[in-house]
Design brief:
heterodimer; A: 1% strand; globular; B: 457 residues; mainly alpha; two-stranded antiparallel ribbon; 10 strands; 68% helix; 6% strand
């Protein structure tokens, strides 16, 4: 049983990380729409753009993690959800395309009119995606997704009060997180004007998110009564209270300009909402489908757990490196800014010529020999072991051939 | 435990063909970007390494400018890849629901690989100014490695779909699943992986060489362009002939594992001993019209034997045959272009080694301009051969594409929306790349290009 639930814990943890990290990126996109005009508005927008530059792709990948682990460990669940909720899922997809494309465009836009246009497209994508994904979460929570291939209503499943409310909550929450992060960044860069602008935004969005969460309980009471009662019992109730307290504390921290701890407390509030859903519903995933019914066979679950643990052992140190470099200000413009500084051990073209490698007949002969060996073993023979030798020989041919030709060619072509 | 017998039933889908085209479109948009993810980081790193070794600033400039392209194309690749992962559930929920526990692991590992790639591309592309040169160079190495592991895991899933194993199907549910052997113990994996990996280097190499060929044809030909052309061109020129050899290998694997796919590729209606190979032509009424037949060549190529028996389409009922002309035409497109690119590569290598210079003929540079798009066409044609040739099966001889499709409505609407979106993205990508190309060369002492007045971000 533990093994069957463990991948679900991974999925939920990934979901929390996606909401808190990528959610902030979505929010940063939304704030570009509401940044106002003039030079000040432009600074507020630019700040939103630059803060997320190096990390947004990595943040986005948490969604891929959630989807792939979910469909490996709980394939029936994913098949049912994706087919019934095809419309919001597809809208989220379009939003992600719009956002990603306009993000890439933003770095190439030169005039402020161009970047304003790109920002608007970016903001629309940033707004639509969390809303659509939020309605999906709401539809699952409100038991609108039956087991089966598109067995639920194409529209009715996600347009009820609960899904729409969760969608709006996702938007408000993303905006709130983004404002907190951006205020913290501005404070670190010593820009009090931008910091204050985002602090006010954080307070407004945070209050809105809190109000929506409370309104959510009222809607649940009316529309999804079983979830409501489950939420107000046992462990679910405990984490829900923790979530409310954390949300209030985070707002207080923002009000007193302690942005750094506010980030983590706000993330805790989200984690508690997700955990609250899990505790309330466990072990039911969808109506008539429990975790153990949906779980993949034993060997697959073991494989997923191994893959996630091994992957995590590589991933988290790398992520720490990325965020560490970012927070210490070691990451600048893409491709570097301005004229190229001379790298260590600077030299001139003449120096290159002086150091041009002599002709290398040995390398060339070795490359030709490897090509012949490769053809013989890969194309002449039929055994698998011979093909292995053949492939390695051909890769050797390409690498040694490249080494034989290119450095000399580069030195000669002056 | 209560067993859940075939929770997701096959649904009737009026727009199966549109769903397949939607998947194909998303794939065709994504796969050229994958090539740049596989191959381009290695080229960037080589340029940076040359810069570190020789101290010549031109290499560093090449590497810096290329790293911006890597970043922009990766950003677009992230979203097109996300769309593909969405479509697995959106379009083929029954496939995912039934077999997710068998193939899903490949994508889960791919997710981590993708993650590492995103992290180190972030560090590499944004770290030029403030990381030490050595550390910066090292931060690029994981990108090259994850380019390989990413293709390994994704291809492992495709190879499994073409040659499924590692499970048993009982009453519509998979049992005795061994995902490791299903994905990585598959005899079709390695040939397919190597074929795709080299294709990545060909597409990137010829495309980048073509960009600088345009510069040369326009008379912009400084040391910067020469360096920036030599690196990708040499890689493409070495990879293209090797790809011909690898192609022969994968064809022999197909002959054994998927004889009906081979029969469709060749338009071989009846099982034949000493079968002929037909070049060009059109398959109709059980034969090739207007094709050039070369006796015994098919048997010779497929089984290395003059009179080997080659399985024909007649061994399976018509409903189990793939669309023959689509498979055949795309195969011939791939082979034709691949052969021409290999010839172009050999010409370059010959001139480079014999005359110790770049070719001077104008036609050569025009050929290079065409070679990038041509390599991309060959890449897509190759995937069409593999995927259409697998039809009507999504999991070969286990589940048909029709059984796996979603029962949800609105596919034509989604298809139209996706087409419009991708057209817009394509326009955006062209615009970005032109902007990046026009950014002034930050090269001390080098001739500035004529149109370098344009200030870009």
């Amino acid at each position: 049983m533990f093994l069957k639930a463990l991948p679900l814990a991974f999925v939920l943890a990934g979901l929390v990380l996606y909401i808190t990290l990528a959610g902030a990126d979505f929010g940063a996109g939304m704030w570009r729409l509401l940044s106002g005009g003039g030079a000040r508005g432009e600074r507020i927008r630019d700040h939103a753009h630059h803060s997320m530059g190096p990390v947004w792709e990595a943040n986005h990948v948490w969604l891929i993690f959630v989807i792939t682990v979910a469909w490996t460990a709980y394939p029936t669940f994913v098949g049912s959800v994706a087919s019934t909720l095809a419309v919001p899922f597809f809208i989220a997809a379009l939003g992600i395309i719009l956002r990603g494309a306009s993000y890439a465009l933003r770095s190439a836009a030169s005039s402020s009119r161009e970047s304003r246009m790109v920002d608007s497209a970016f903001a629309v994508g940033s707004l639509v995606t969390p809303f659509a994904l939020g309605t999906m979460a709401g539809a699952i929570a409100a038991e609108q997704v039956p087991v089966g291939n598109a067995a639920g209503g194409l529209f009715s499943s996600w347009t009820g009060a609960v899904p729409i409310l969760i969608g709006v909550l996702a938007v408000a929450f993303s905006a709130y997180l983004a404002a907190v992060y951006l205020a913290a960044d501005a404070a670190r860069h010593g820009d009090p004007e931008v910091e204050e602008a985002y602090r006010r935004r954080a307070l407004g969005a945070g209050a809105a998110a809190g109000a929506l969460a409370v309104a959510g309980l009222i809607v649940l009471h009316a529309d999804a009564h079983s979830l409501y009662t489950e939420l107000l019992h046992g462990a679910a109730l405990v984490v829900l209270i923790v979530s409310l307290v954390a949300g209030a504390v985070a707002l207080a921290l923002v009000a007193t300009r302690r942005f750094e701890p506010a980030r983590y407390v706000a993330a805790l509030a989200v984690a508690c909402v997700v955990a609250g859903w899990a505790f309330a519903r466990y072990p039911v995933l969808l109506p008539g489908l429990t975790v153990s019914q949906a779980a993949a066979p034993h060997d697959t679950l073991v494989a997923v757990v191994i893959a996630v643990l091994a992957g995590g052992a590589i991933l988290f140190p790398s992520l720490a490196l990325l965020f560490g470099l970012l927070l210490r200000g070691r990451l600048g413009e893409p491709g570097g800014a301005g004229a190229d500084a001379e790298p260590a051990g600077g030299g001139t073209v003449a120096a290159v010529l002086g150091r041009a490698p002599a002709s290398t007949p040995l390398q060339a002969r070795l490359a030709v020999a490897l090509l012949i060996v490769g053809v013989g073993f890969l194309n002449g023979a039929d055994a698998a072991w011979a093909h292995v030798i053949g492939v390695f020989a051909l890769f050797g041919f390409m690498v040694i051939g490249f080494a034989a030709i290119v450095p000399r060619a580069l030195a000669e072509d002056t | 435990m209560i067993t859940l017998a075939a929770a997701l039933m096959p649904a009737h889908q009026q727009y199966l063909l549109e769903a397949r085209q939607m998947q194909a479109l998303s794939f065709a948009v994504h796969i050229p970007l994958v090539c740049f993810g596989i191959a381009f980081p290695a080229m960037v790193l080589f340029a940076e390494w040359m810069g570190l070794r020789t101290g010549d600033p031109v290499y560093r400039t090449v590497a810096r400018r290329w790293s911006r392209i890597v970043l922009a194309l990766f950003a677009v690749g992230v979203i097109t890849g996300t769309i593909l992962s969405f479509e697995m559930g959106l379009l083929w929920p029954n496939f995912t629901a039934t077999f997710g526990s068998v193939f899903g692991l490949g994508f889960a590992i791919e997710g981590f690989s993708f993650f590492m790639e995103a992290i180190f591309i972030g560090i590499y592309a944004y770290g030029w100014d403030r990381l030490s040169p050595r550390l910066h160079f090292l931060s690029g190495i994981p990108i090259v490695i994850t380019g390989f592991t990413g293709s390994l895991t994704v291809i492992s899933v495709n190879a499994w779909m073409n040659h499924p194993g590692g499970f048993r199907l009982v009453g519509g549910k998979v049992v005795d699943v061994n995902p490791w052997s299903a994905l990585f113990g598959n005899s079709m994996l390695w040939s397919e992986l190597i074929h795709m990996y080299i294709a990545g280097y060909m597409v990137t190499g010829f495309t980048m060489a073509g960009v600088y060929a345009v510069c040369r044809l326009r008379g912009r030909w400084t040391r910067y362009e020469r360096v920036a052309m030599t690196i990708p061109l040499t890689i493409g020129a070495l990879a293209a002939p090797v790809q011909v050899l690898v192609g022969d290998w994968i064809a022999r694997v197909i002959a054994i594992q998927q004889p009906i796919k081979l029969a469709a590729i060749e338009g071989l209606a009846r099982t034949t001993r000493g079968a002929s190979e037909h070049v060009l032509g059109w398959y109709t009424n059980g034969q090739i019209k207007f094709g050039i037949g070369i006796p015994h060549l098919l048997s010779l190529l497929s089984f290395h034997s003059w009179n080997a028996k080659v399985t024909g389409l007649d061994t399976v009922p018509p409903a189990d045959r793939p669309p023959i002309n689509v498979t055949r035409l795309s195969f011939q497109t791939m082979v034709g272009i691949g052969t021409l690119l290999a010839a172009l590569g050999v010409v370059y290598l010959f001139v480079r080694i014999r005359r110790r210079s770049l070719p001077t003929w104008r036609w050569f540079y025009w050929a290079l301009v065409v070679s990038g798009p041509a390599a991309t066409v060959a890449l897509i044609a190759g995937w069409v051969t593999a995927e259409v040739g697998r039809q009507p099966w999504v999991v070969y001889h286990v589940m048909t594409t029709a059984q796996s499709v979603t029962g949800a409505g609105g596919i034509p609407v989604g298809y139209a929306a996706l087409v419009v979106t991708y057209l817009a993205v394509a326009g955006a990508v062209v615009w970005i790349l032109r902007r990046l190309a026009r950014a002034p060369l930050d090269l001390p002492g080098a001739d500035a290009p004529p149109d370098s007045t344009m200030q870009a971000a």
